[in-house]
Design goal:
The protein has 175 residues and is mostly helical. It is built from seven helices and no strands. The protein is 79% helix and 0% strand.
């Protein structure tokens, strides 16, 4: 069977595109970890088996290919949620550990509390009905709060009424 020069060139061009695509997929799968590369390998094995089984059967090959693709999709659907769950879990562990380490740096914990307080709503504050209280009532309640809660109150107070008397009382309690 002779191949026409134009057809041969088109086939070679298509084969080169497939190789480039395969290289991209392998590179991406490598960066995603062992499970991703193994899943890709299983997909290629399924595809190779389907192609070998199809031989020269034409339309039958398409059916076998579709079955191989469906099997790959099922394997991928099973593998990636597990992989993502493990990656998410590990990310939370690393992030939590990093956050703990950062909080040990002087001033970071206070900055975190101030940030939380500046975004807090009244019902999230450690003093109930805060906005309804006068300065003296707030001052009395501040004495029982931890530094974390004082930071939250201070940030909330700065954002809302910004009363000097409340700020002074917080400063006195910290000293």
């Amino acid at each position: 069977m002779s191949t026409q020069p134009g057809k041969s060139s088109a086939i070679e061009h298509t084969v080169e595109r497939i190789r480039e695509l395969n290289d991209r997929i392998v590179t991406s799968a490598k960066s995603s970890g062992n499970e991703a590369i193994e899943t890709y390998e299983r997909m290629l094995e399924n595809l190779a088996e389907a192609q070998e089984a199809a031989g020269d059967r034409g339309a039958e090959w398409v059916k076998e290919f579709a079955r191989a693709q469906a099997a790959f999709t099922r394997q991928l659907a099973q593998a990636f949620p597990n992989l993502l769950e493990r990656l998410t879990s590990r990310g939370k562990e690393i992030g939590g550990a990093a956050g703990d380490q950062l909080r040990r740096v002087p001033g970071v914990s206070r900055a975190e509390n101030l940030a939380k307080g500046s975004l807090a709503r009244e019902d999230e504050l450690p003093i109930a009905n805060y906005d309804d209280l006068n300065v003296n009532e707030i001052g009395d309640r501040l004495e029982t709060l931890s530094n974390v809660d004082l930071d939250k109150i201070e940030a909330y107070e700065t954002r809302t009424k910004n009363r000097k008397t409340v700020h002074d009382k917080i400063s006195t309690l910290r000293d």
